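SAMPLE LOG
Freezer: B-3
Tube label: C17
Construct: single chain, 476 aa
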Amino acid sequence: MVRRDDEGGPLTILGGGPAGLAVAHYAHRAGVSFALYERTAELGGLCRTFQHGAHRYDAGAHRFHDRDAEVTLDVRLLLGAELASVSAPSQIFNRGRFLDFPPSTLGWLLAQGFGEAARVAAELVRTRWRRPRPERSFEDYATNRYGRRLGKPLLLDYSEKLWGLPAAELAPDVATRRLSGLTLASLAVELLRPHRRTAHLDGAFLYPRTGYGAIADRIVAGLPAADLHTGHEVTGLACDGGRVRSVDFAGARSVPITGRLVSTLPLTVLVRLLGDALPVTARRAAVHLRFRHVRIVFLRLARARCTPNATIYLPDPRLCVSRISEPKNRSAAMAPADETSLVAEVPCSSGDAISVLDDGVLANRVVGELAEVGLIDPQEVVEWRHHLLPNAYPVCAIDYADSVRAIRDGLRAIANVDLLGRGGLFWYSHLHDQLRLAKDYIRSIPDGAGRSTPTTEHVATHREIGEQAVVRAPTP
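STRUCTURE (predicted):
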């Protein structure tokens, strides 16, 4: 949502996560003045690297994919030699076994047995010849392409666990291209040439040597410190004449708004802050949107290494852990030579059983689950740390797009508010997406003569970005 009024005031950016920092970064490069406000004491949001003693670990199993050449160049210029190419596999735990993920067809066949492999192959054939069911849900999407025998353990179970809804209630938007190469053709290729792996199995990505948070740290280091304000929790937005005139912060602080306001706050939070300035249809729509939180449990282990994997997925609904990463497999600088660590991700929703667990109780449960699947010996756990990542994932329920559209329609009545970021757009996206949309946004701002930069007309709509097949980005 980008409008082009010629306004003389600076940009006001709400939220100091990846999207907010990206806007500030490109604004500073373009000579556009700004002021950024972040609720917590730290900048970076989900793009942070924590440090505990000699160990470093990220706020999740992050990696940077080279999906946008221009954005990748920007990141390389930021980090220089700090950004390294990494090749590390991922696996999924299924029926007591760790299998390559995305799976090699031959590996899946050998692990499941020829009988199950034949049933999977037969179902794949049927999915190609039968008339596909309308893809209203993610369940429709997955079963149309892979059938239930393959789709359930590799896609449906994990997605239901991550998003907290049955696959039949999730929108097809949550699909990724992780299994795009798993086809009958790839089955034939790998059976006839078992040493050849199809392109979708490539585990290569880019990663900063000292952790993913180095990207945010370098952005922050290049920005004027006086324009970055942490510890500023927004409590209200004062509107008058179809514009936001001021931002109220906790502690009775208030800042006037004379230019554009860029919100990367969760969309539901923005609606609450605007209150009666939005039509009732927008406020009602926000009730139907929700976010999924993630609880991070870091385990320091008295052993040199656990696995060779970058990431391990645990779709089993009996387990609270959804995904595990071993930081040392991304960079040797993340742990001392004689120790390693695991970072477990536990998704939850506000008020559910996981969200209210005591930190220590959750840590003990995580240790027990990882021991159950054979990843660790509990005796090797030296210590643990816990972090909460609120509003980490917008939940893409079947009808979420209608609710988002109603809110955006309501926001049109407020002339100087723009939305960006995973939470602000209510769009599951990645860091390269945040950087691209921020760059396009700054390019769209008119110069002093009222001209917008000709290289982009507006933030992209219905464009393919990252792992998403279709982006429902905002319309201007």
